[in-house]
Amino acid sequence: MKTLLLLPALATMLVSATISANTTQFSQGRQLSSASDYQVLPARQRVAIENRILNERLEQVLPTLMAESELDMWLVINREYAEDPVYFTLVPQPTFAARRTTMLLFNRLADGTIEKLSVNRYPLGEPYQSAWAGGNLTEQWQALAAEIVKRKPQKIGINTSEHWPVADGLTSGLHQQLVKALPADYQNRLVSAEQLVVRWLEQRTEAELELYPQIVSLARSVIAEAFSNKVITPGVTSTDDVAWYLRERFEQLDLPVWFMPYVNLQRQGLACEADNPFCGTSGVIQRGDVLHTDVGICYLKLCTDTQEMAYVLKNTETDAPAGLKAALATGNRWQDILTGEFKTGRSGNTILANTIKEAKRAGINSSTYTHAIGFVGHAPGPTIGMWDNQGPTPVQGDWPLYANTAYAIEGNIKQALPEWDQLVHVKLEQSAYFDGKRVIYLAGRQTQWHLIR
Predict the structure, then answer these.
(1) Rounded distance, CA 435 to CA 74, Å?
(2) What does DSSP assign to residue 413?
(3) Considering the domain boundaries, does residue 33 fall inside one?
(4) Same domain flag for 170 and 219
(5) Where a domain ends, among 161, 192, 223?
(6) pLDDT above 80 for 6
(7) Is 366 in contact with 322 (CB distance < 8 Å)?
(8) Which long-range contacts (CB under 8 A, 24 or more apart) does 179-188 make?
(9) Number of domains forming the structure of the chain
(10) Which of 82, 167, 280, 382 is the most exposed, having the fewest neighbouring CB atoms within 10 Å of its CB?
(11) For residue 24, what pLDDT is reported?
């Protein structure tokens, strides 16, 4: 690997970026301090809210998306322990599994409304009308086929997809059973429902966007707790200690994480190589260290993905060094370049290419790997770069940007830090949504360093 000393041209560019970086306050900056500032509903109280939003989505969102996808009918068929990824976004709570074989049938009527039927041994209840219950598996498949034929759909969407895992939930065995159960002239009416599945999962409603800021605030607030003297004693606390604090604090709040929180440090003398995609190591935290974390939680069916940075003050310091402030400002500038490229209908690949071009023009050494968030942390929608591919991503990168969709604005910048005489790596990720005209951070964004004193 090449060091900064072997790359004088790059070093000159990065030092220039450091000196010229705008360290003024960026828009939507927000500091949080404690998750105790926010309410977390007990499990019982979450059910009514989640079911109200589900009913709104089925009544208001699904008809539009089925028409958009030109599907007459949509089938979601899965079995216990092999649930379709989209299944839990469609069923009322509390639902913990697809009991035995569970079949959902959505039929688009002439007036645009959607019939919602269940063909299950155990009826789901509202908002589904039970078309069949009880009996054996053979009778269940016969009942499903009868309900399909009764409605004469021309295009029947099923969850099979080559490129989108979330839209590939119909197992091979169930697919075979479905084809076997249908009359011959209906078998060729089965088509992939991938467009509908992706749109269903990525589309956010007004009610969800009212809740989302609280959810993201909880994630950011726990990070603020972790990056404080409440948790960190310089010279004693390790990066793993902080990661486990994050994990256990979320458990205490009954907020499930969708991946193990990650914490790392950068330190003067531990070189950050220009060609290393991610700089940072683990160990005991010392004064003068730069810290980074990556966390993701889910609450009220919505997930977050957040990365923030902290600095451990030396005994002689009262604030972060000017070089670190400039580096964070460069990271915020990169965010603004990226979000400024969000235009309805523009593909993820185009957004990425434009962002890279503008960042280079601004003298910023950046990497962009932004993705949709929602019912899952790595949600379907336009892929805007990958950490290991800063070029076009086939299929997912070609997906267009729609209004009222949510994203993890994720990426990083490297910049020369004069105080260390080496590169520093600022890795940022903040949850936001696109309203069709601009990107709005759901709980603000980090524009100031977390400081451990």
Answers:
(1) 28
(2) E
(3) yes
(4) no
(5) 192
(6) no
(7) no
(8) 180/141, 181/141, 181/142, 181/144, 181/145, 182/145, 182/148, 182/149, 183/145, 183/149, 186/145, 186/148, 186/149, 186/156
(9) 2
(10) 82
(11) 55
Say what the pLDDT of residue 134 is: 85
Domain housing 435: 4-41+206-452
Residue 275's pLDDT is 87
Looking at residue 237, which CATH number applies to its domain?
Answer: 3.90.230.10
Range list of H helices, 386-427? none
151 located within any domain:
yes
Check whether residue 257 and residue 113 sit in a common domain: no
Structure tokens at 288: 């003068």
Short-list 136, 64, 62, CA closest to 104 = 62
Token readout for 178 is 């479905």
Q: Which of 162, 192, 222 is the last residue of a domain?
A: 192
Query: What phi, psi does 333 have (nearest 5°)?
Result: -65, -40
Q: Are residues 168 and 277 in the same domain?
A: no
3-state class (DSSP) for residue 418: coil
Angle among Cα 409, 32, 411 to the nearest 5 degrees reads: 20
Q: Model confidence at 135, in pLDDT bands (50, 70, 90)?
A: confident
DSSP 203: B
Domain co-membership, 181 together with 297: no
pLDDT grade, residue 10 (50/70/90)? very low
3-state secondary structure of 99: coil
pLDDT in tens, 232-289: 999 999 999 999 999 999 999 999 999 999 999 999 999 999 889 999 999 999 999 9
Strands 156-158 and 190-192: parallel
Q: How would residue 20 be classed by pLDDT, with cut points 50, 70 and 90?
A: very low
| Largest separation between any pair of C-alpha atoms in the chain | 80
Q: Is the peptide bond before 127 cis (omega within 30 degrees of 0)?
A: yes
pLDDT tens readout for residues 340-355: 999 999 999 999 999 9
Is residue 11 over pLDDT 70?
A: no
Return the SS3 of 293: strand
DSSP state of 396: G
- 362/437 same-domain check: yes
Q: Are residues 428 and 393 in the same domain?
A: yes
Spatial distance between the Cα atoms of 95 and 100, rounded to a whole number of angstroms:
13
**pLDDT at position 342:** 98
| One domain for residues 287 and 168 | no
